[in-house]
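no rush on this but wanted to send it before i forget. what follows is a protein written twice so to speak, once as letters and once as structure tokens for the fold. mainly i need to know what kind of three dimensional shape the backbone takes. thanks a lot i owe you, the record is right below.
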Amino acid sequence: ASGKGIVFHAIGDIADLSIYGFGVANNGGGTDGQEYTFPVQTMAAGENLWVIRDAVAYATYFGDEWTNINYIVDEAPSQNGDDAIELYC
């Protein structure tokens, strides 16, 4: 459970990321709607943002490379890897 996460990639500059959020359609059961709203922050085109559960688990796995990754720690990524991720604006 600690290694779960979702990566978002900006295809354009985003002045306020908080207008976006996501939801997870678990186990083919359809949408539960928006379950997470991003914080107020900017994101430049080409940047990636990870939403993860456990920063220590990721730092251990990725090692020194993890210091170059933008991430948010939250319990939101409640998925098992084969669920649909829904992006909301």
